[in-house]
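In response to reviewer comment 3 from the previous cycle, which asked for concrete evidence that the modeling workflow produces usable outputs, we include below a single protein chain processed end to end. The sequence was submitted unchanged, and the resulting structure tokens are shown without manual editing.
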Amino acid sequence: MTQTPTFDHPLDPTTRPQDDLYGHVNNSWLSSVEIPADKGRYGVFDVLRERSEEDVRAIVEEAAADPGSDPDARLIGGLFSSFMDEEAVEAAGLAPLRPRLDEVDAVADARSLLVATGRLGRLGVGGLLAPIVATDDGNPDEYVVYLEQSGLGLPDESYYRDEQHAVVLRAYRGHVQTLLSLAGTADAGSVADAVLRVEHRLATGHLDRVSNRDAVATYNPMTADELAQAAPSFDWAAWAQAWGMPEGALDRAIARQPDYLRSLSTALDEVDVADWRAWLRWHVVLASAPHLGRDLVAAHFDLAGRTLSGIPEQRARWKRGVSLLEGALGDAVGKLYVERHYPPESQAAMDELVEHLVEAFRRSFASLSWMSEETKAEALAKLESFTPKVGAPVRWKDYSALELSGDLLTDVGRANALAADREIGKLGGPVDRDEWFMTPQTVNAYYNPGMNEIVFPAAILQPPFFDADADPAVNYGGIGAVIGHEIGHGFDDSGASFDGTGALRDWWTPQDKEAFTALADRLRAQFDGQRSRTAPDRAVNGALTVGENIGDIGGLAIGHAAYRIAVGEEAATSVGDDGLTGDQRFFVSWARVWCGDARREEAERLLAIDPHAPQDLRGNACRNIDAFHEAFEVAEGDGMWLDPADRVLIF
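The workflow returned the following structure tokens.
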């Protein structure tokens, strides 16, 4: 058994931190650890996810062996056993797919197409529009349906138009034909050609990924009449009913991309119904293939793994089974995970960390020279009203309505339908401010502007991010800076559009907004065109990554200030047994949490779609922080040197 790598690796003495902090901290790890054959990238997050995955595996295998009287354990064990019974899946062949394909074959016109996409969407099949129920940005005390562009089989619209994705696009057509053929499609080549025609057509109406980050531009409330005017050929009532929405659910909805609705409506008029059937058949097969026989599973991996991410080897079946459980029954698994793996002392230590970070933000706002007192008061009010959620939710999702049939694809569809009903059931009810949108076994964190909250699941609260017994410099440079990053999203180029109640409201004076925009533009320009170790031939998109870069640099600055609040200047500047000062250990810890490598294909895919900068650039983002230059005595001419006039610090 391969030993899981840790992150207590030595620093690289041949690389000076003044020239490349990320390399100084991580080169020894990067040179000794290979990316596993079943991964596109590998680093801190991935290692912790492997640990969480193993922990969850133990839980679900125990549930499968002996669920006892716990109804959630029976569901967990039943669905996992169904997934792991590969021979039963193989024996069933294409029979479980037939009801879904019957929906496709029944499509005769635009209305029946929309009904089919609604019914199939409930089962987890991608459609023309993705309905998302969330708090209304204009009134965060109510839920509303957001309408999100959809319909593509590749990661986003740029894959259909941008020359840098031409190789993937050419390969995609072959993947479509192969999967359709394996799913029993006659004349799969002609059907694949039709799929590409439709997806190209849909892609021309999509908003690009950078524009789609604009919280104001993508907030477009529409009445039912206005939806009908925007997309007269889209039968909204039939689609909503097929999705299971109650009457009146779209009396007021939020169109995220109104131009896409207009483009889609025209496409419904102009695209031949046979092409629509081909497109829908493909999306049924694409969504279903991972839960069918070996040939379809392998062909799906050829597309999603090898072509898009350069991953040479499919993940072990048990890992894929764990991923299925995480999506279908995540809270049921999470409840058992927390009982075993989240010690109470972690909660107390995190509470103290958050308190110091909030205080550091208070002091930062008070000292900002570019922000007026009027805007500072609004910023502080937002800070005081935000909610930290750490570890696990106070209430778990209910899965009692899920009945398992024993057929894998059927049960995956039922789990998706239950989740869809849960979301739709929020409409008209009170906002649940205790809800989590990640499970506690997830190694990640998020900021939710609609609820002005940060959420840190239990699984991320472990080394190298956090250790209740560790040196404060390590914790503040790790999880502390990441908490600062997430709080900072409340004040980045998107989050700054929301006030402390979660409402989309401009609380800035015009002068302050202009100053903020100028700083953000400088950060865009600083990252725009930078290149990473893992994709040296592709440039970073500064406009796509600006929000996360604001979060990183703000999180670093605030995390360091909070560290100084926690330990004082003397401890922060004193040299320890390792020869480093506390401040230096803080920045080393920051660089360490971004340790990781990526295959070229995966790195290039992420550059196209991921709002985060590559890991090495994130680790070296501290070149914007004065305290970093002071801690390591960085001088002009050093690789990490950034002239004070060029350093961008917003908060």
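Residues 86 and 293 are 8 Å apart (CA to CA). We consider this sufficient to address the reviewer's concern, and the full set will be provided in the supplementary archive.
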